[in-house]
Amino acid sequence: MFFTSGIRPGGFNGGEFISNTSSHGTFRSFCLETNENITLSTNVTYSYEIVTTGAVNGGNGGGNPDPVSSASAWIFVQWITGAIANNQTNAVDVQRAIWSIENESAGTLSPAANALVATATGLYPNTADNAITSGNFPNIRVLNPFRMINGVREDYQSQIILIPLPTASGMALAGLALVGGIRRRK
Questions:
Q1: Sign of CA dihedral 63, 55, 72, 99
Q2: pTM here?
Q3: pLDDT band at 165 (very low <50, low <70, confident <90, very high)
Q4: 92-112: pLDDT as tens digits
Q5: Rg of the chain in Å (alpha carbons)
Q6: Which residues contact 122 (CB under 8 A, 6 or more apart)?
Q7: In this prediction, what percent of the chain has a pLDDT beyond 70?
Q8: Which of 19, 15, 18 is CA-nearest to residue 89?
Q9: Is the CB of residue 41 less than 8 Å from the CB of residue 6?
Q10: Which of 43, 109, 131, 180 counts the most CB atoms within 10 A of its CB?
Q11: 51 forms bridges with which residues in the sheet?
Q12: One-character DSSP codes across the chain
């Protein structure tokens, strides 16, 4: 896996990232923690795990794993679907809003970031919930990159990602394959 930049203003450590993985495709993402970093280069490769439990080592907000709040997931989905225009100013606002909800060091929030936080926490006031297991956002996941250095796992910036859910036709085909497989065994 490697990361390339997405919509990220120069000098800002957050914003949208493009996560290119070897076996799961490409994801658009935002970071969940402010105290972990990642090198944006095709020369540095990471192993990764995609999980439902949360960010590894939980950042400043704590927890290991540290679940993604439904309020943060809502903001992220607004970005991915284009309900929030994908530009550099909004990328900073989205990042700071997610960090604020996740109890990270978000810095000073702009009026737009404050409005995002207010709307999201109005819709999902329990910011300690898990967006995935609560059922609010079952297709949200956390991409946890890591490297093994001298036999020791070193964790890097955990990312919120959206995975595609199976389509109805895909589920139907999977069901037919299962039935066909059971019939062949008899």
A1: positive
A2: 0.83
A3: low
A4: 999 999 999 999 977 889 999
A5: 18
A6: none
A7: 87
A8: 15
A9: no
A10: 131
A11: 142
A12: -EEEE-S--TT-S-S-EEEEETTTEEEEEEES-SS------TTS--EEEEESS-BTT-TTT--SSBPPPHHHHHHHHHHHTTSS--SHHHHHHHHHHHHHHTTS---SPPHHHHHHHHHHHHH---TTS-TTTTSS-TTEEEEEEEEEETTEEEE---EEEE-PPPPHHHHHHHHHHHHHHHHHH-
Give whole-number Cα distances, 88 to 24, 114, 117, in Å: 27, 17, 18
Residue 134, both tokens? 């609560």
Residue 101 tokens read as: 């909800």
> What's residue 171's pLDDT?
41
Q: Which tokens go with 173?
A: 């085909």
In angstroms, the CA 98 to CA 44 distance is 26
Tokens of 43: 């020369």
The answer to whether 15 and 30 are in contact (CB under 8 A) is yes
Range of the domain at 40: 2-185
Mean pLDDT for all residues in the chain: 84
> How is residue 150 written in tokens?
């001298």
- Number of domains making up the chain: 1
Give the tens place of pLDDT for each residue, 37-86. Answer: 888 777 888 889 999 988 887 777 777 888 999 999 999 999 999 999 99
Q: Which amino acid is at 141?
A: R
Q: Which two tokens stand for residue 28?
A: 């658009």
